[in-house]
Design goal:
Elements (H helix, E strand, L loop, with lengths): L12 E7 L7 E7 L14 E5 L2 E6 L7 E4 L9 E8 L11 E6 L10 H14 L20 E6 L2 E9 L6 E2 L13 E3 L4 E5 L12 E3 L4 E5 L12 E3 L4 E3 L4 H8 L4 E3 L25 H34 L18 E2 L1 H7 L6 E5 L2 E7 L5 E7 L3 H14 L10 E7 L2 E7 L4 E2 H6 L9 H21 L4 E2 L8 E3 L5 E3 L6 E2 L8 E2 L11 H6 L1 E2 L1 H17 L4 E5 L2 E4 H10 L17 H14 L10 H16 L10 H5 L13
Helix pairs in contact: 7-9, 7-12, 9-11, 11-12
């Protein structure tokens, strides 16, 4: 949506044509629009006709930096040659614009759908792990559109069944979920190169047809379970590169001796000095079994040499890459090389009307209201004189010149006249979220759906930084005061002065000095100094709690005592009480289902360990679902009732109420 097509001729039209092999084929058309030029009335109006096959025309006016989708309510069918056109209306000044275009073809399936138990299991796996694959519709049908990573068996008399699942290098985290155990006929399972923690779960024993099991390169703990030997069809087992302890069950070693099982484990699982026949770890020092010892020793030696060579190659390849500057970001030193956006100090004085109106203050300096020559309002962020502010100014200016997203504050220009430095940013009429939530004026109270939209806006801005930027960018100071709102209550993330850019998009974390704001700071980052995207997710979770509760990140309980918002909400949730959690200003006008869902999202974001938190992309998807509950449900049915409020309130506990 950040790119678009327009005709080469300002008075021309856009056309898209295709031919159908079968005139009975049904097509559903989706057109996506977003304007990049702000309309100033009739002098810059962009309006155009969208036509299907030369008729069925309708006029459309795209919105400035707001995505809109126009689609056919019934399929196009009955002809071989199709044409979609876009041409300006009589009163339009600007030519038509098209950001994205999709055609969906309706496929009629005559086959039996995938077994419903397998569908339930695989969709549970998708939801729990947040699998980022193109998994839609029926998992096994049609055959050529089978879900990526699946293998299915097809029997004319029975529904298709999932027999193989490969989620290697899929970014999974957490424990191996029991949903995998519901895939009863699975023959191959690969979960390597993920971040699965905990012991090997016993539910794997239910996969009685399993032939291939790869759990390598995870964080599995505990001992190797005996039940793995009960998987009679198992021919390949890889448990290497984990945190397992103890010894390998003798039955598994016996199967590997007979070559019915290819077994790979870490060397520390075979460290017994004895030669007890019941101790499989003694095999490497047992003279009675040279046929086993020699292959194991040779295999270990070859593996060690191979790993050593691979490490050397990796370092040789990495060094020059790390030394090269990243072309996506402007150099840290020297000029900004964007003279068209550079303002003199005298121009700043004129824009701000001699710094007449202050609209904000912070450690960096003071923010003034300004107005450009074309009448557009701006915010002028003047730099204070301390050294740290100068570093943050450089960081923020460089990043803002390269970052472009509707939910990040837009960069207008900068001033660097000697010690007079300033950033010129778009003006956000409603100020920051913190002030709006704490305002006592009932006219400024945000409704529940507005709060959800603000949360979704911010999460999408973070998703752009974490996923859309290569390498990723960590904001490090996500808080209500750094979330600004325009006149339409559209939220945008601001203040990028302490951002960190990963030096490589493949790094999982970086060690750095702890920076951030008390109450929003990730506890794991604070203790370990290891920074990653989940640190921003924690801070966002606190912001989401502020939207839900209407309370600040640090709550004053008594005159001399304060408590973090995360701890306070956790205390109330333990008692099952929602009335004291939701913002009283809402006056119980919220959908209870979406309220609990939003609360669940915020709690998952503020888990103490980063591996327990969802990715920001998962948060975006969950918040969209949450907002959809509000949009699609009659507001009157969402009033708080005692039935919903109770929700395990029988085990009440004491939590202090804020002043």
């Amino acid at each position: 949506m950040r790119t678009a097509a327009t005709p080469m001729n300002a008075n021309g039209s856009l056309y898209f044509n295709w031919t159908a092999n079968d005139p009975n084929t049904e097509f559903h058309i989706f057109r996506h629009f977003a304007d990049f030029q702000k309309s100033n009335g009739s002098t810059s109006l962009r309006e155009f006709y969208c036509c299907n096959n030369g008729d069925s025309c309708f006029a459309h006016e795209p919105k400035y930096l707001v995505a809109s989708t126009v689609y056919t309510t019934s399929p196009m069918t009955g002809v071989r040659d199709y044409s979609i056109s876009f041409s300006k209306t009589e009163k339009s000044v600007l030519p038509p614009i098209l950001n994205a275009f999709e055609i969906y073809i309706v496929l009629t399936l005559n086959e039996t759908a995938t077994d419903e138990k397998d569908v339930y299991a695989i969709t549970s796996i998708k939801d729990i792990y947040g699998v980022e694959k193109n998994w839609m519709a029926d998992p096994c049908l049609p055959n050529k559109y089978m879900w990526d990573g699946l293998t299915c068996s097809y029997d004319d008399d029975n529904p298709p069944r999932i027999i193989s699942l490969n989620l290697s290098s899929s970014g999974l985290s957490g424990k191996i979920d029991a949903s995998i155990g519901n895939l009863k006929l699975i023959q191959s399972l690969d979960l390597s190169k993920n971040k699965i923690e905990g012991p090997i779960p016993p539910f794997l024993a239910t996969l009685t047809s399993l032939e291939h099991l790869d759990l390598s390169q995870n964080n599995l703990t505990g001992t190797v379970p005996q039940f793995l030997a009960a998987l009679i069809y198992l021919s390949y087992l890889n448990l290497s590169h984990n945190q397992l302890s103890g010894s390998v069950p003798i039955s598994l070693v016996d199967k590997s001796r007979t070559e019915s099982l290819t077994l790979s484990v870490d060397p520390n699982l075979c460290n017994s000095p004895s030669c007890n026949a019941t101790d499989p770890c003694a095999l490497k020092s047992c003279k009675k079994s040279p046929s086993v010892v020699v292959p194991v020793v040779v295999a270990v030696a070859i593996t060690t040499v191979a790993i050593g060579i691979a490490v050397l190659i990796w370092f040789k390849c990495r060094r020059p890459r790390a030394a090269r500057p990243n072309p996506q970001y402007i150099k840290r030193e020297g000029s900004f090389n964007l003279d068209t956006r550079r303002f003199s100090y005298d121009e700043i004085v004129t824009v701000t009307n001699n710094f007449q109106r202050v609209i904000g203050k912070g450690a960096f300096g003071t923010v003034y209201h300004g107005q450009m020559k074309d009448g557009n309002e701006v915010a002028v962020k003047m730099l204070s004189q301390h050294a740290q502010a100068s570093v943050e100014f450089q960081t923020e200016a460089q990043l803002l010149m390269t970052l472009h997203h509707r939910h990040l504050v837009r960069f207008i220009g900068y001033c660097a006249d000697g010690d007079k430095k300033a950033l010129i940013l778009e003006y956000m009429a409603k100020g920051n979220l913190g002030k709006l939530l704490s305002a006592q004026d009932d006219m400024e109270t945000l409704s529940w759906d507005q709060r959800l939209r603000i949360g979704l806006d911010v999460s999408q801005g973070l998703e752009y930084l974490h996923v859309g930027c290569k390498p990723p960018i960590i904001h490090r100071d996500v808080k209500a005061a750094n979330i600004l709102l325009n006149e339409n209550l559209e939220a945008k993330l601001a203040d990028f002065g302490i951002c960190k850019v990963f030096t490589d998009e493949y790094y999982t974390h970086m060690s750095t000095q702890v920076k951030g704001t008390h109450g929003y700071l990730d506890p794991e980052y604070f203790s370990s100094h290891n920074l990653n995207e989940k640190s921003d997710v924690y801070s966002f979770g606190v912001v989401l709690l502020e939207l839900i509760t209407g309370r600040p990140a640090i709550i004053q309980i008594w005159d001399s005592q304060k408590i973090g918002l995360v701890e306070w909400v956790s205390c109330l949730i333990s008692g099952g009480d929602v009335r004291n959690i939701m913002d009283p200003k809402l006056q119980a006008e919220y959908d209870i289902t979406s309220a609990w869902k939003a609360l669940d999202i915020s709690i998952s974001c503020t888990q103490p360990k980063s591996v327990q938190r969802p990715s920001i992309s998962s948060v975006v998807a969950e918040l969209k679902d949450c907002l959809e509950l509000v949009i699609c449900k009659d507001r009157s049915s969402g009033m708080v009732t005692d039935e919903f409020v109770a929700r395990s309130s029988s085990n009440s506990i004491y939590c202090p109420l804020p002043r």
